[in-house]
């Protein structure tokens, strides 16, 4: 359930994200075949051999992976052959053996939209060498560090401005001023003494925007800093503002004026910005600016009024109706883990759209209401576009994702799974030992959070009119029942409905949840089964994550979706979503269907009736609060939520027709499993129950069922390096119990899977690497665990 995502702001965030990554080429997902490196070359002049940074005490470095084998190999294909060394006392030493270098703490890999590289945090100039383990090919980098002495500000002179005009997207910025009349003084030297304030030009009140999300100013969302050209500040504005830089220790300050000129509209007539025929590039990408309105580019507040349609077999259908259009909206840029046709926004002085992968010719059209009002008649106010497809454009290969077995309504048993929690709803009322009610219309009684922060139209109750169990089925029903609340007596929630959760009753971390339900139809009807973290250890939504097992739009009964939300606290949140399309003749309303999520440490997979449709891996998610933890925020227990919402931003603020209410979601069961040896219920096998050890008292692995638990004991740190079936090498920091013992799980292996691995650890006398070991699942024998 997406919360706190006001339509326009979320749209702008999506645009900013798209602008940040550009139109990334589609990357066909390939098996990470074992390969050797025959040559390496720097990706660009900015990515080596010398990279210089300055900072107070330390600086962060990053570079894109080299070009391998003249471009014939990707990093995924050669990662098992690639090592990293550091020069110590004139000698090259493997980085895992050098004290002070800890993977995922001060160095590691990064991945962004299919582009990969290394990052380092350093406090001294350092020489790094990438090398081939097989044949000795090397590539050297010098990461130059210059330490900066801090000072305070006595004066500031602008290098740009102080009068600046924002572009159509509201984007504007300026380079850092000259501090203390000395161009040699860098921003880093005075950063601790510098404050930034803003205000609308017609206001007299300055706003401190540092860590002040309540003001609406969010770092890296609508303002931030850039490093090019010496660095400076950037802003995305919707009105004219003043920006004040001020010293914390003196009276020195400097005021800038960013002017945003809102265009005058008369007839709202659309015309092409530049051409109407576009050809897909080698990756299948097409991008073009949105049409002009009355001769000038649109601004952010106008984006939500555009109408996007695609021609399917001679009929124009909404691009957002993915079941008919064949396109999924990807608000965070192209998702190369999905084989779907995707589209989204980009921004670079003007706003535009991107599409990928376009493999066949097609037509779309873009319209705008003739009265300039959202939902108004478009008439013939369209611009028509022709796409020339590239039949050779790559499309990610998801054929390696197998379908799964599901239980029956009367028998939850699933081979290889252990049932750990369930509700079959066989009683006569809701089991409040398993579920709690959520009631009301506001989040934390905040008047600005009406409609659960989503502009929803329902209030939730604990009434048996809205939540009741009957004939072995849970019913959650929305009724026409207006009600106001003390937070704002003049605002009415038009509908009542139900929302229940397992918070403080049941949580789980990693496993499988099955949810068998029959869903209602209707405009604005929004049934959902989803999960939130019990403790939100990384901060408020969505920094601590959200997992959507199933969401549906009642007006589109041929489609359901799954998603994860992550990133920072709203509105600096991100999400990834996929959609399932029911076979012809089926809908989510004409029968019960089973919606499944499998949650593993490094990925999520979604299914309907056992059929796979979407996957997200941990290199796609992150939490701002834990940048060096690749599993965050999805490494904590979550609880289950079921509700039936009405209206809200999920489907564009649509309200039900009178015939759509009452609407009822019917749930036959909710079942949660862990991987295990049986499917009939019970607890997970404990230590020694069906477990074997391969290794010794210091290091090795314990096998339990299809799960492995690697361990290192008596160490000051431990990293695991492994690859499965000759795939790409994974380098991970093992989890400490605080007493010198480290573990790391690798779960859900299949018979015959080959795992190659070695450890890097420090037993107290210095770091060392163990030899490579090989484990074959179902073949390698061990000794019984005690």
Automatic annotation (TrEMBL):
The keyword Hydrolase applies. Residues 385-678 form the GH16 domain. It comes from the Bacteria. Keywords: Glycosidase, Hydrolase, Signal. One of its GO terms (molecular function) is hydrolase activity. InterPro entries: Beta-glucanase-like, CBM56, GH16_AS, Glycosyl_Hydrlase_16. Signal peptide: none annotated. Residues 687-777 form the CBM56 domain. Belongs to the glycosyl hydrolase 16 family. This is Glycoside hydrolase family 16 protein. It comes from Paenibacillus brevis. The lineage of its organism: Bacteria, Bacillati, Bacillota, Bacilli, Bacillales.
């Amino acid at each position: 359930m997406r919360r706190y995502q006001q339509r326009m702001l979320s749209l702008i965030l999506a645009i900013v994200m798209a602008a940040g990554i550009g139109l990334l080429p589609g990357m066909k997902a390939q098996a990470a075949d074992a390969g050797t490196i025959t040559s390496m070359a720097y990706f660009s002049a900015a990515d080596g051999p010398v990279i210089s940074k300055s900072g107070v005490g330390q600086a962060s470095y990053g570079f894109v992976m080299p070009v391998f084998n003249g471009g014939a190999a990707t990093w995924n294909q050669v990662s098992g052959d690639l090592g990293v060394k550091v020069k110590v006392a004139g000698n090259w030493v493997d980085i895992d053996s050098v004290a002070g270098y800890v993977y995922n703490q001060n160095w590691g890999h990064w991945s962004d939209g299919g582009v990969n590289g290394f990052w380092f945090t350093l406090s001294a100039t350092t020489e790094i060498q990438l090398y081939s383990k097989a044949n000795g090919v090397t590539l050297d980098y010098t990461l130059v560090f210059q330490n900066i002495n801090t000072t305070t500000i006595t004066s500031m002179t602008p290098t740009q401005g102080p009068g600046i005009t924002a572009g159509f997207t509201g984007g504007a910025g300026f380079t850092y001023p000259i501090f203390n009349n000395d161009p040699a003084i860098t921003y880093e030297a005075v950063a601790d003494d510098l404050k930034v304030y803003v205000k609308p030009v017609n206001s007299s009140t300055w706003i401190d925007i540092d860590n002040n999300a309540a003001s609406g100013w969010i770092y890296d969302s609508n303002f931030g800093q850039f490093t090019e050209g010496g660095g400076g500040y950037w802003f995305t504005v919707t009105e004219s503002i003043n920006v004040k830089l001020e010293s914390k220790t003196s009276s020195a300050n400097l005021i800038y004026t960013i002017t945003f000129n809102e265009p005058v509209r008369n007839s709202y007539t659309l015309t092409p910005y530049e051409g109407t025929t576009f050809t897909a590039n080698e990756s299948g990408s097409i991008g073009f600016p949105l049409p002009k309105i009355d001769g000038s580019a649109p601004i952010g507040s106008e984006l939500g009024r555009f109408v996007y349609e695609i021609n399917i077999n001679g009929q124009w259908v909404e691009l957002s109706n993915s079941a008919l259009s064949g396109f999924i909206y990807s608000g965070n840029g192209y998702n190369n883990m999905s084989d779907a046709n995707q589209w989204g926004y980009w921004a670079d002085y003007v706003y535009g759209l991107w599409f990928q992968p376009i493999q066949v010719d097609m037509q779309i059209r873009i319209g705008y209401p003739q009265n300039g009002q959202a939902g108004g008649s478009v008439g013939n106010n369209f611009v028509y576009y022709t796409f020339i497809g590239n039949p050779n454009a790559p499309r990610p290969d998801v054929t390696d994702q197998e379908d799964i077995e599901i239980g029956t309504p009367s028998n939850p048993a699933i081979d290889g799974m252990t049932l750990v929690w369930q509700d079959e709803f066989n009683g006569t009322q809701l089991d409040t030992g398993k579920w709690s009610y959520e009631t009301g219309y506001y989040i934390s009684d905040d008047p600005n959070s009406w409609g659960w922060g989503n502009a929803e139209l329902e209030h939730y109750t604990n009434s048996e009119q809205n939540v009741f169990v009957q004939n072995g089925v849970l019913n959650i029903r929305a009724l026409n029942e207006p009600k106001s609340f003390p937070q704002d007596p003049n605002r009415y929630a038009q509908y009542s409905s139900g929302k229940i959760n397992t918070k403080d009753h049941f949580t789980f971390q990693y496993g499988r949840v099955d949810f068998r339900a029959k869903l209602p139809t209707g405009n604005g009807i929004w049934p959902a089964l989803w999960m939130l973290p019990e403790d939100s250890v990384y901060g408020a939504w969505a920094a601590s994550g959200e997992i959507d097992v199933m969401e549906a739009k009642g007006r589109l009964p041929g489609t359901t979706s799954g998603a994860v939300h992550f990133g920072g606290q709203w509105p600096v949140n991100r999400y990834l979503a996929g959609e399932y399309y029911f076979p012809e003749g089926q809908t989510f309303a004409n029968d019960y269907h089973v919606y499944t999520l499998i949650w593993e440490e490094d990925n999520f997979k979604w299914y309907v009736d056992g059929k796979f449709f979407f996957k997200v891996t941990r290199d796609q998610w992150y939490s701002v609060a834990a940048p060096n933890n690749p599993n965050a925020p999805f490494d904590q227990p979550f609880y289950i939520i079921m509700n039936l919402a009405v209206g809200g931003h999920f489907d564009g603020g649509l309200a039900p027709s009178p015939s759509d209410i009452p609407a009822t979601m019917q749930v036959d069961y909710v079942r949660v499993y862990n991987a295990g040896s049986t499917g009939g219920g019970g607890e997970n096998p404990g230590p020694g129950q069906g477990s074997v050890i391969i290794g010794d008292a210091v290091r090795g692995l314990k096998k339990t069922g299809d799960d492995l638990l690697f361990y290192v004991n008596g160490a000051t740190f431990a990293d695991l390096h492994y690859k499965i079936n000759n795939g790409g090498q994974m380098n991970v920091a093992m989890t400490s119990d605080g007493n010198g013992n480290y573990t790391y799980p690798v779960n859900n292996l299949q018979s015959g899977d080959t795992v190659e691995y070695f450890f890097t650890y420090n037993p107290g006398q210095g770091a060392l690497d163990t030899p490579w070991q090989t484990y074959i699942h179902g073949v390698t024998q061990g000794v019984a665990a005690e």
